[in-house]
């Protein structure tokens, strides 16, 4: 005997069907036939009829558009959920957390992403934090069309995990092609970088290859073009690193290692100093951090790095001596 659906059952089926379509489109753009297959499986799992599935799909997407969901489609192109108007119910704490995230992202130069969060949470000026101030001062807004395209292209290369080439303009205006191997995007001191291993770069200080000197940081806003990926897979699973031993003393004598690549080696019982062993993959950033600690930080090994830092401090001291005269 055929079961007769009640009005409530029918409404439930339509709602569940529409929500399943939205869930699938929220994951990624999908072709009409793919959506039909997936929602058919969903209906069968819930013992619901999957007859005339393509017609049901077309009607439901039309109704979703009428409800404010922006779903893009074209002949021979997949359906793409561009903008969702699904209501989000948030607690006061959740609204504050979203507002703080949007505030941080906006000041870091990701205004488009901040606007997305603001729209999702329907945030107002009253939700913005008044007791937190940030000052990242990024060089650019990473939501600009050209930079968004650059970041998108880089993300594709990272997923492909094959060597590729970028055209880069240095701070002095010089342009050069760089062949990149293993890569990732890094946000450092408020600036977005492409961090990449350059296999063809000739190291100057370390003979063994690969080594840390072949790791480079390229500012994303200075990348002119990102070329297509080659068929050569990345040669490394991890970036090469250099083991460095350094000492914190004085006001930093009680320093506790908090970075994943750091570990404590020795510590003075009275808290006057602590020795740290770290595995660093980019020496320039490490040098910046050590130099900002002044006399409270001292590199112990390797010796060639000790000499470099000593020379730099001597040059800085000489500059200040000239200024005093």
From TrEMBL:
Which InterPro entries does the protein's record reference?
CBASS_pafABC_assoc_protein (IPR051534), WCX_dom (IPR057727)
Q: Where is the WCX domain?
A: 258-316
| Alphabetized PROSITE patterns for the sequence | WYL
Signal peptide as annotated in the record: none
Cross-referenced PANTHER family: PROTEIN PAFB, PTHR34580
Protein name, as recorded: WCX domain-containing protein
Q: What species is given as this protein's source?
A: Cyanothece sp. (strain PCC 7425 / ATCC 29141)
